[in-house]
Amino acid sequence: MLCENCRLGTTVEISLTVGGHLVSLVSCSHCDKRIWQADGKGVEVNHVLTMANGMRK
Ligand SMILES: [Zn+2]
Q1: How far out from the chain centre does Cα 57 lie?
Q2: How far is the CA of 27 from the centre of ligand 1 (A)?
Q3: Distances (CA, A) of 12 to 19, 32, 50
Q4: Which candidate, 8, 17, 28, 48, has a CA 20 to 30 Å from the CA of 54?
């Protein structure tokens, strides 16, 4: 996929499960833009970390 940020690089999507949520990380090899998505919605990385922390309880 073409990067929406720089429109020069291509993005790589990595999917993982964090705290029972499907989380995707889309990262661009050109501008290093990282987009996190949880359950199909864009989220801040802090939100992902919060979900990961909840897993350790
Ligand atoms: Zn980019």
Answers
A1: 23
A2: 8
A3: 22, 11, 23
A4: 28
* Cα 54 to ligand 1 centroid, rounded to whole Å: 31
**Identity of the residue numbered 7:** R
9-32: per-residue pLDDT in tens? Answer: 999 999 999 988 999 999 999 999
CA 22 from chain center: how many Å? 10
pTM of the model: 0.77
- Name the DSSP letter for residue 51: H
Query: Ligand 1 centre from 4 Cα, in Å?
Result: 7
The 8-class DSSP code of residue 13 comes to E
Q: Are 4 and 14 in contact (CB under 8 A)?
A: no
Instruction: Say what the pLDDT of residue 56 is.
Output: 62
CA atoms within 13 A on the CB side of 12: 6
